[in-house]
Amino acid sequence: MADILTPALGESVTEATIAKWTKKVGDAVKKDELLVELETDKVSLEVAAPADGVLGAINAAEGDTVVPGTVLGSVTEGGAAAAAAPASAPAKTAKAEAKAAPAAAASSIDITVPVMGESVAEGSMGKWLKKSGDAVKKDELLVEIETDKVAVEVSAPADGVLTIAADEGATVTPGQKIGSVSGSGAAASAPAAAAPAPAAAPANTGSAQVSGGKNDTLSPAVQRVVAENNLDPKAIAATGPKGNITKADAIAAIGQAAPAPAAAAAAPSAPRAVGPREERVKMTRLRQTIARRLKESQNTAAQLTTFNEVDMTNVMALRAQYKEVFEKRHGVKLGFMSFFTKAVVAALHEIPAVNAEIDGTDIIYKNHYDIGVAVGTEKGLVVPVLRDADTLSLAGIEKGIGALGKAARDGALTMDQLQGGTFTITNGGTYGSLMSTPILNAPQSGILGMHNIVQRPMAINGEVKIRPMMYLALSYDHRIVDGKEAVTFLVRIKELLEDPQRALLDL
């Protein structure tokens, strides 16, 4: 067996994306024949077959990110002739085919842990959506592997029968075998599916089925939304990358689709379930990482928070005046985040210490403005990064933040989208927070906390008027940012928001 490896990608290029496989598992290949195309941020590369044979496994699917040396798949050497023989050889008798069947049944394709991103060395197995012995289809979602940053989906490499080699909760590493799919299993299981079996027939229709409020073909997060809201999975429009239903799809379907018939019929008579008084649940890797990083941030930095308040009257008036035209022109709604991001970038230009970080006894001043945007998901808080925010228009910022938020909720963020931010914005106002003291996202030196907009009486030119007010909080590392700089930074943001034309005119 010969491995298909990711080649060196060129100077300063550390990763590539699988663009297209030209063959599928089981196809005969010739040495030096083009098998897969890779794309980097600079060039496209072609990877050829290392030997004559049969493409035995594909370990990295189209769209996956890989690094030099990653095993993309493997070629079973010497298999080309065997694969081609049936085309030219006389038709076999039924007896001969029966004798050959055991040999075919013995073949299987390994399911391995994919590369999970730079600096991610291990992950934890989630819940298998199938059990050993079940028939699976190629590209069908089988299990999620949770790392301390993202969840990685693992799909079936071929049609067949599943054998599980790594249980839920097990710690696994890239390249490790976690199961296999028997290449002959699909054919073997087909007669059973077609045979009359009243009790099992619904499970083999190919449609999403509900059992006890859960669907075994859905991810755990989607199962929970479906079960809690009595949704019918068959009525949910799927937008996932492989035609699967995402959590966002399920949430969007709440209130739009009729409840699943079985759940609706059972609801009136079902007694209220009484759970245990306490329940011990192991923390997910993401939650463990969040806890560790937040505590490390508290222990490392000299954190201090300064507050101010901003009158949102003018920003709200500007949004109300142009929101319809803006959405028609740019295809995205005009929100508050674009105004805050513009104001933050302008303030960072003026107070560069807030955009810097400490490395040992050095201060690293950043001349780029990559803004982290905290997003709450079912699995915990993640902070995807909006790159080069200083070069984006209001529409570009809204589109970028919208795309990052959707990817976060769908569990589709890449490692690159989670690394390298220079400053963070978090919006507790989304959940109704009036005031908070956000914790630094280390090694950054500043984080801005937005809060709920509340109508309050304010003294305006000697008169009391009701204005929409928001408290702002800037947490900063006092080791690098002085109090005067922090206060000036926050006042600058206040000025730009209360007079948004200044930001647009770069004043």
Automatic annotation (TrEMBL):
InterPro entries, A to Z: 2-oxoA_DH_lipoyl-BS (IPR003016), 2-oxoacid_dehydrogenase (IPR050537), 2-oxoacid_DH_actylTfrase (IPR001078), Biotin_lipoyl (IPR000089), CAT-like_dom_sf (IPR023213), E3-bd_dom_sf (IPR036625), PSBD (IPR004167), Single_hybrid_motif (IPR011053)
Reaction(s) the record says it catalyses: N(6)-[(R)-dihydrolipoyl]-L-lysyl-[protein] + succinyl-CoA = N(6)-[(R)-S(8)-succinyldihydrolipoyl]-L-lysyl-[protein] + CoA
A Pfam family it matches: E3_binding
One record GO biological process: tricarboxylic acid cycle
Lipoyl-binding domain: residues covered: 1-76, 108-182
A GO CC term assigned to this protein in UniProt: cytosol
Subunit relationships: Forms a 24-polypeptide structural core with octahedral symmetry. Part of the 2-oxoglutarate dehydrogenase (OGDH) complex composed of E1 (2-oxoglutarate dehydrogenase), E2 (dihydrolipoamide succinyltransferase) and E3 (dihydrolipoamide dehydrogenase); the complex contains multiple copies of the three enzymatic components (E1, E2 and E3).
Name this protein carries in UniProt: Dihydrolipoyllysine-residue succinyltransferase component of 2-oxoglutarate dehydrogenase complex
Underlying gene: sucB
